[in-house]
Design goal:
Blueprint (H helix, E strand, L loop, with lengths): L1 E12 L2 H17 L6 E17 L9 E16 L4 H16 L6 E11 L1
Antiparallel strand pairs: 1-3, 1-4, 2-3
Helix pairs in contact: 1-2
């Protein structure tokens, strides 16, 4: 019975540079811990823009408005082709370390898939 593991990381950040930095830092720590021969797929999802309007005036002046927007950038990394259980354990330790040192404005989702081939 063979099994195939797959990890998917999704990073959401308000700036494009911080998302790229987290991806490069994660891949660098994987290579430093000698987790090699992995298939890594990176995709950048389109940015999401939320726009909203606030009234400056407390009364009836509708012309005094301020428009604001919040932008968020998403990046997904899919990592497959783990050979041993030790590589999976190292990957989990690195991801826990990344979660502890994550900036306040960024979000990280980690999904773990284990496919069993009979």
């Amino acid at each position: 019975m063979n099994f195939k593991t797959k990890f998917q990381l999704q990073i959401t950040s308000p700036t494009h540079s911080s998302a790229n930095y987290l991806v490069s830092y994660f891949l660098y720590t994987l290579t430093q811990n000698k987790v090699l021969n992995l298939k890594v797929l990176q995709t950048s999802l389109p940015k999401k823009i939320k726009k909203f309007t606030l009234l400056k005036s407390p009364h009836i002046f509708k012309t005094a408005r301020t428009q604001l927007e919040i932008r968020s950038f998403k990046k997904t990394i899919t990592i497959t082709n783990f050979n041993t259980v030790e590589q999976i354990q190292i990957f989990k330790k690195i991801s826990q370390n990344l979660i502890k040192n994550l900036p306040v404005t960024t979000k990280l989702q980690i999904k773990y898939f284990r496919l069993i081939l009979i």
